[in-house]
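Table S2 (text version). Query chain:
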Amino acid sequence: MEQGDIWLLERPDTKPRPCLVLTRTDALRWMASITIAPLTTTVREIATEVRMGRDDGVPVDSVATFDNVRTVGRGSLTRRLGRMSPGRWHEVCAAMRAAIDC
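Corresponding structure-token output:
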């Protein structure tokens, strides 16, 4: 597991959904909980979204939503689906800044 990976998040209280791993790679081996941005097919075209698609391992055009960032137990991430295309991390940083208004 690495920062920028897309994993399937499976929890008993919600339907399975893809998510983008935000926790930095160097910390992941020590962490029991991982910070993620869930993906959704509901696209609102706002600054707190980052588009994801087939190039990222997501079969349906989606967005990572940074208004819904959360921390989940590592065991909730059950299967690696893909990885965010290289050179796009600046989009994540911009969406996160917009989400926390800094």
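Notes on Table S2: The domain at 5-100 is CATH 2.30.30.110 (SH3 type barrels.). The chain has a mean pLDDT of 95.
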